[in-house]
Amino acid sequence: MTEGANIRLVNGNSACSGRVEVYHDGQWGTVCDDDWDMKDATVVCRQMGCGTAVSVQGSAQFGQGSGPILLDDVGCSGSESFITECSHRGFSQHNCGHSEDAGVTCSADQIRLVNGRSRCCGRVEIQHNGQWGTVCDDGWDMDDAEVACRQMGCGRAVNAPHSAHFGEGSEPTWLDDVGCRGTENYLIECSHPGFKKEDCGHNEDAGVVCSNVVQSPALTLTSSNSAVSPGEAVQFRCVSSNPTCISASFRLYKDGLSIKTQTAESSTTFDMTVESSHQGRYQYSCDYSYQGTRSITSPKSSPFDITVVNLPAPRISLGSTKEVTWGGKVDITCSVETQFTGGSITLTQSTGSFRETKSGTSVTFSLQKVDFVHAGSYSCQYQTRVSSRDFRSPQSSSVQFSVVVNLPAPRISLGSTKEVTWGEKVDITCSVETQFTGGSFTLTQSTGSFRETKSGTSVTFSLQKVDFVHAGSYYCQYQTRVSSRDFRSPQSSSVQFSVVVNLPAPRISLGSTKEVTWGGKVDITCSVETQFTGGSFTLTQSTGSFRETKSGTSVTFSLPKVDFVHAGSYYCQYQTRVSSRDFRSPQSSSVQFSVVVNLPAPRISLGSTKEVTWGGKVDITCSVETQFTGGSFTLTQSTGSFRETKSGTSVTFSLPKVDFVHAGSYYCQYQTRVSSRDFRSPQSSSVQFSVVVNLPAPRISLGSIKEVTWGEKVDITCSVETQFTGGSFTLTQSTGSFRETKSGTSVTFSLQKVDFVHAGSYYCQYQTRVSSRDFRSPQSSSVQFSVVVNLPAPRISLGSTKEVTWGGKVDITCSVETQFTGGSFTLTQSTGSFRETKSGTSVTFSLPNVDFVHAGSYYCQYQTRVSSRDFRSPQSSSVQFSVVVNLLQPNVTFSAPDGSYHWWLKDSEVTRGYSFSIICSTPPQYPGGFFHLGFNGSNVTRTHSAVNHSATFFFPEADYIHQGNYSCVYEVSVSSRTFSSPTTELLEVTVKASPAPFIGFGVAAGLLLILVPIIILFIKRGRKQEDQTAVKTDHRLHAKNTYGGTVGNTDLDDDHEDYENAETIFQHREDSDHSDEDYIKVEDGTTNRAVGNEYAAASVLSASLLADGLNVRLINGAGVCSGRVEVYHNGQWGTVCDDDWDMNDAAVVCRELGCGKALTAPQKAYFGQGSGLIFLDDVGCSGSESSITSCSHGGFGKHNCGHGEDAGVTCSGRNEIRLVNGGSSCCGRVEIQHSYQWGTVCDDDWGMNDAEVVCRQMGCGRAVSAPNNAHFGQGSDPIWLDDVGCRGTENYLNQCSHRGFGEENCEHTEDAAVVCLGDQQSPTLTQILSHSAVLPGETIQLRCASSKSTCISVDFRLYRNGKTIKTQGDKSSTTFILTLDSSDRGQYQYSCDYSPQGSSSITSSKSRSIDITI
Hints:
By secondary structure, the protein is mainly beta. It has 7 helices and 107 strands.
């Protein structure tokens, strides 16, 4: 497959809509609708060359596919070239069924206008098969242009230019001789010879000029507002909302009279000057028109009002003297006398920047804290708003005042603390808040000689490397020049600082741990970080007499061979001299150490195990590694009174003949003397031992087997080997209450007459006394026995043969020999659900009216109760029987009421041309059923339903083709199983010609007797001259059956492909050795060939029996309704080639076979390659034909195919379904077709699950209700189904459980029905009688229509910008009428959806949105 050809759309109404299928790895497969959206559809439509995507469909809207599901979770961005380039799970990776097959609908052919100045004019081009091409101007007129403008959404047509008015296009030229009525919606709906059928050059390319959507123009005032002053210039701009590429005539109206006309394309500006004589209000409006082949004028714009306004100059007054102190307050009052109140007055400083506005016709402006900038001249002006426009009066006269200045005292701040380190830097900042910049500060030392000046309003004075002379008080003063005047501020407050030398506290550190070993060395280091070097450190012992001094800023003091007197706390202090003054640092923090003698914890070890036998010996060793020898160890018993001391650093303590008092925990401790002080080591870890008497575990044995019969005796023996005699044994039941004790080292416990309470596990334990203490051995191992009641396996016998007739009775007997009477038997079916219980030791179970469910294997089991316990015997052996339906051989009889009672006929003979019947009957055994009538020489049968156990097959006109042997077979369904009877004896039917003409000429007969010899002579001579071949037959039928071709020739002649009516003649071969044999004479126009009557009669009868849907069959499919298509022609079967094979052809085949709807039309020998002839090729059905041979085709046997192209069909199945008497195809009484007859469904147990399956099978969406009691009227017989039980997930109703076809107990008053929602796709929202741009107050109409009507009312909802604004009920469509509110402005999106009334959970997806601009 080449790229681009690996996709197709199936089951749609064109090549550009349908179920999406992709080709991968040699086969076609479907696409799952998970995450399927418009972006995915866009890629499919582009790949198919089908224009843009119009809609997407899910849930198998175009029917369920077959074969693999190749793609799932497809995610396209919309820009891909092929669907396989989009993200997806991977080929064949999915979690879908074919009920989720995805589909698309594409726009197919599109249109555009090229080379115009707007999208609504230009050269006409259409898109076909993915390629743009032009339209020839032959016959091109305003009607054609009108359709093109409508399709473009560009309003009315103005001109229809010819001769490549908008330039020549490029190949191809798609259309020529276009003839539109002007009412079509799409150009391709107009008449034309066909795509690419043209005789034009591109110098004849057609064009159109559209008006675009002609709406009211917008009139705007561009130069001023609606209220103006006399003499002002006014500009009106008139704009077309949808311009096109030709000029329009714009007209301006004043009070309804046209005053000015200008020509422009999309807009124009009208310039006006308001005359001084104009007073009052005037209305202006505009419109525009196109002057072309058709004149089109727009509605007028909305009007504008113009008003003229005059204002007087205001009055102004000053509320204070003309000289104002700097920082004081000034009031200025402005007032005006005018009728246009509601305005404001603005006070403006003529020589400065002051400007302030206040509302009112008399207002006072207050200037708080005036500055020099406020001095000068002021005027005021009144402004107000009239008709949304601002008007301003002339300026008032002026008032004037001046401002004088005062400077504030400066602020002073010290940049550091009041105590400054000698040699460091000090910053003093002076600042002032004043508008008079450009001045300077002077900093003065109050108590010294320092004085310095710097410019600025905020300055910092820096004193580098301060000395003691700089200490003291400082103040600052600001001076500046304003308008040639010097001003000096008051002095600031004072700041003060002193000069010091600050030494930091030194750091101190200990060179060892805080615990120093006696005789060791200690180092203590003192250090300081300071600029004042040349000093010294003193180390002092806080708690002793040690004191030592060393020079430097980092020194170490060493204490060699420390003794206990050195222990304690130490600190250091740094001292130095600066500028002839002594300074001392703070004391450092302290360090502390102690002097110790450290002894390690001793080691302890036990010379024996932790468990010591009573009377044995125990050794405990203590040792330590230390320099401090000469000490001793003490061994102490933690839990007793033992305590002993021995000298040395490694000693052993011995305890001979240990008793129980010695048991417990022991530790040791080392002690010695150093420098007249005693030191003790930590305690060692502990060792522990116990003193024990060990008894071995006893032995236990059971004197009998582990399964003891109820009521018998059990002996259990316990024994032990030990030196500690004189003890006793206790036998204990682990799982019960038994416990018994006996003395001795070997004893036997006896349990007389055991019961169920004795069953279980037992153990024994030995106990004795040693040294006043009790000791107990471990428990022995366990012995266990159970107490049982043993029941024998029962016997089972079958009271009848192993093959039972359906509806008969079966007896099964169970018995057992046992002392435990009073029990019961349970009979169980091994392979079914039968189970029954009866009391007794010998019982018989009866199964009356056996059905197929009873067939199988059975066993029995005996159960009884002993001492409140239930016991069950083993299962018996099995008995088995089967259930059969034995149908009797039916009868076949002959009847010819108007064609057999002639004196010349015998039994089973009929006169040619008269009717006859063949009756099949059977003795009454089962109701219903069918009779199949067979004819020898053909595998074709006819089938009729059995009525009163018989069926009559009627033949309206006997002919020689009906002569032969007939037989009957009876078929019936019993408990959902089908059974067939033996075939009847053969009934031979003979067809004879009538001798009536000869009787009419009785007199002439005598004369003929004279001429017989002469006639015979001439006949023999004529026969010898004929060129014919005689074929012997065993029948006495002579038929002339003329076909278009020679019998047996597979190369059929197209000129003789139609059948001629069969004509039967008599021909007696006198010159044959078989003078009583008959022949069929076949003429082909050139030669006559005699064909054996058996073959011809069978062929003709087969053709008769194959009529009405039986001249076609499906091979190699899953059933009779799917497979390779084969047709019957000229006595043999042949295949059909898949060239042009599509769903229309498949629909005819499915209808012809009575197999419901077509689901797929597979190609490429999908159901395997046939053999033999290929009969049909290039089949073209419209879909309405009754037979596949009625469709157009290349002729029988005419093809260019191989069997690799054999066509196939998959149909929905023979049990079709329909809904009757409803308002649409998706609601009504349920009827199904079975055995080519329509019948109803009973409403017993009819519910929503059943209705859901019907709606799915009908392709009608979700079920809404499941009405009962013949809601849509009573049907007529038969009633096909009853007690239907669907899960709701089935695809067809006949997949649900039911009694069987025709098995019911209902009347037609109980006929079932359904109401389906219909094909719940997105509804269509259209705008009626309005434009996409409207004015407030206008009315718009929006029509919401569902894609498929049903017989129930639905709620339609209208949304604006996603929010519901209106709900209306109707069946298939509704019109929403909206009056736009005056507050509405801008662009709004409208959409709609619908749901069944009362079922809001079943809601359609929303329609496409419509944009409306207000």
